[in-house]
Design a protein that fits this description.
The protein is mainly alpha-helical. The chain has 2 domains: about 70 residues, Tetracycline Repressor, domain 2 (Orthogonal Bundle), CATH 1.10.357; about 120 residues, Tetracycline Repressor, domain 2 (Orthogonal Bundle). It is built from 10 helices and no strands. It is elongated. About 30% of the residues are buried. It comes from Janibacter indicus.
Length: about 200
């Protein structure tokens, strides 16, 4: 998720643009410091608008907070839709999925935002925890529509680790490595072939 600090503030004749900039700024502040960190002054400064704009376009700070949380949720869902589009056909899905994931892992600000959201999710706010879990949980759901559920979960867990790795290192895991891992996991025996119905899997 990019920073609104890199964009000029929308003009006075663009009320919808100003409203969007305020929501984006609030979303960034939530990722960085949690939902309780929002103040009208902090949001206005981040969005590059006057302090009065935050009360002109929103009835309360609670309304702005809810819209910012929804914006974060929408961003996650949009990213997941792009990932799902790379899955079919499954024959070369590992390579296409690897390219998609490598592009994300190479985006330093996107990785930092993701890790900040995870950090915020460790607090007491259930809404932030839900957002922090949303990407991996929904990704596993999407993968499980096409792959063995255990394989889907393994890929999700691996990508959690790859994101942390990208945040701690100068370079992310290579696209080639991602593709090889995905292909190995997708080629693993499924539960249907390793156990029979009614048998003890131990």
């Amino acid at each position: 998720m990019g920073s609104t600090q890199d964009r000029p503030a929308p003009g006075r004749r663009d009320p919808e643009g100003r409203r969007r900039a305020i929501i984006d700024a609030a979303a960034e502040l939530i990722v960085e410091g949690g939902a309780s960190s929002l103040t009208h002054r902090a949001v206005a400064a981040r969005a590059g608008v006057s302090l009065g704009s935050t009360t002109q376009y929103f009835s309360s700070l609670d309304e702005l907070r809810e819209l910012a949380l929804q914006s974060l949720s929408d961003l996650i869902d949009a990213g997941l839709a792009e990932v799902e589009a790379q899955l079919l056909p499954l024959d070369d899905a590992p390579e296409r999925l690897a390219q998609e994931m490598h592009a994300f892992l190479s985006d330093e600000r996107a990785v930092r935002a993701d890790l900040e959201l995870v950090h915020s999710g460790l607090g007491d706010d259930p809404r932030l925890r839900e957002l922090a879990l949303r990407w991996t949980d929904r990704l596993v759901e999407i993968l499980a529509r096409h792959l063995d559920p255990y394989v889907a979960e393994a890929i999700g867990l691996y990508l959690d680790g790859a994101t942390l790795h990208a945040g701690l290192h100068d370079e992310p895991v290579s696209a080639e490595t991602l593709a090889r891992v995905f292909r190995a996991l997708m080629s693993a025996p499924t539960t249907a072939t390793t156990t029979t119905e009614g048998s003890d899997p131990r």
